Amino acid sequence: MDRPVVALENADAVYDYYREHQQNRRVTRLAYGALAGRFRPRVRYGDGARERLRALIYDDTRFILAVNHVSETDPYTVAAAAWSSALRPVIGRTRVLAKDELFVETEPNRPRTRRIAERTSQRRRIEMMGGIPVFRSRDHGLRAVSRAGNLMMDVCAERLSRGDDLAIFPEGTCNEGDPTVLQHVGSGIGHIVTRARTRGVEPRLVVMGLHYGPPPGRYRSASVHIDVPDIVLPDKPVSIARTVAEYLQVAVELSVRQY
């Protein structure tokens, strides 16, 4: 299948493509290893979390990794942390939700040949990391993205049912206020969980708190705290989102304390 232009009006073709897209796992593992060497995150775990995470992976249990969103470099920090942690075995089969503008292949303010090369390279990097585009209501309007959002959630649930895991920044945008306090977590993550359940999958929640230090902060040697709450997520999407926010906030606070 040809790679479609990632644009809202092209949402059907976009999600048909990312429903099936699979990156080269060997290349992905090499890239994650390189990012780990560059960003050098300091990974710590909640009590028993490393063992629970390894057991989930060994038992081939699907999980959703929820991460707080502090900066544009967060996906690279998460990739580095995955390589440096018990998450390493799932590199190459984890889908990552990313805003649609990261998949755009041109920029208007640069010479055409250079901007195509740079943005094509960026799109391929995002795809190599398992990216699935998200059309955000803050960028396009709530009504405009409604159908695309439903397609995206269906693709995520289907990928979970086919053996992938999923990483999400559930705040939806970078935290430009107090990075120690989680922003609002929308119900999208809850809808993905409920749709996965209709496909016979019960995803487990894994939370990852990121902290880069006092403002302006450094994007290397981030403090990363991973936990695997020993819980079953609630039934309703809104309740799921609240539960995710509760446990992710604790992970954020611990990443700050451990910086």
UniProtKB/TrEMBL annotation:
Keywords: Acyltransferase, Transferase. Pfam families: Acyltransferase. GO terms for molecular function: acyltransferase activity. InterPro entries: Plipid/glycerol_acylTrfase. SMART domains: PlsC (SM00563). Residues 63-213 form the Phospholipid/glycerol acyltransferase domain. This is 1-acyl-sn-glycerol-3-phosphate acyltransferase. It comes from Rhodococcoides corynebacterioides.
